[in-house]
Design goal:
alpha+beta, four-stranded antiparallel beta sheet, two-stranded antiparallel sheet, DUF1444
């Protein structure tokens, strides 16, 4: 898998991935992953989508590719914003509710 890990030319395949803080912060070899703190319980890691799997971006890959952490962050955030997202919209008493998952449904008050 190491030979498949190239950032240059695959910029559209770089995405942020949210994981729990209990998720390892470095690879088994001790190489730190690129991540940012998100909440007290989560971190945002950065990954290269390889189609059927993904590879977390670590400091070794950054160095090999000559990329800066900021480049990866900017690319990943641009890519996530460019994904199409279909929202379900419901209006109740002049209030608009948006649902990311179309299977989500509003529950009546007091349910």
């Amino acid at each position: 898998m190491e030979s498949q890990a190239e950032l240059s030319g695959k910029e559209k395949n770089i995405f942020p991935v949210i994981r729990s803080t209990s998720f390892p912060s470095e690879a088994e070899e001790g190489i730190p992953f690129l991540y940012d703190h998100h909440t007290a319980e989560t971190r945002i890691y950065y990954a290269l989508d390889l189609g059927t799997t993904y590879r977390l971006i670590d400091s070794k890959l950054l160095k090999k590719e000559g990329w800066l952490a900021g480049q990866v962050r900017e690319t990943a955030l641009f890519n996530i914003r460019s994904l199409s997202v279909k929202l379900k919209e419901d209006r109740v008493a002049d209030n608009t509710f948006y649902f990311l998952n179309s299977n989500d449904a509003m529950m009546p008050a007091g349910f």
